[in-house]
What we know:
Metallo-beta-lactamase, Chain A
Amino acid sequence: MKKIELEYHAHSCFTLGVEGYRIVIDPYCTGMFPWLGELHLNAEEVLCTHGHGDHAHTAAVALEPKPCPVKLAVTRIPCAHDDHGGQKRGMNDLLLFEAEGLRAAHLGDIGCDLTPEQKAPLFDLDALMIPVGGYYTIDAAQAAALAKELRAKVIIPMHYCPNAFWEKDSVITTVSPFLAQFKDVTRLAGSTVVVDGSEQGVVLPAWPL
Length: 209
């Protein structure tokens, strides 16, 4: 069966797996936020959406290079990290992955509305990894509106504060405001989402730490 596996490692970090080939996306540095512990991963490749420490700690990934057994295409779509054209926090790349006839996108720290040209490759994805915590990124309402507009079959929230660490003055919200905007949410017992082209809706991996 054709599939992409997305293993969640907290914050915005995932391992995308296709036929045993692993790409770590946005590895974080310990201590960037109090809920981020040590990260030690193995993969064939590591990709970062932008250069901030909570997304670009490539030293956390031990590389084990080998050829990918299937055709895997990665497209970078530049956008702003903020709603001032990148003047506040710089730029960010949306990452579009295409393999096995499936399409998945990781939006990094998107912090602005997308143009029609930026949205065009992102409609009807098999999986969408989207930040929902606000302040540094789009907030829960913006993320829900964008996810619904793009009509992704699987929607995976990221870049939020886990409930155990949230306080009323926290700048990043929990995932709850985002989930409240959807009727059906699948909460997984594990941290891996299997993407096979089926309609699954909002899927919440277990917090891995």
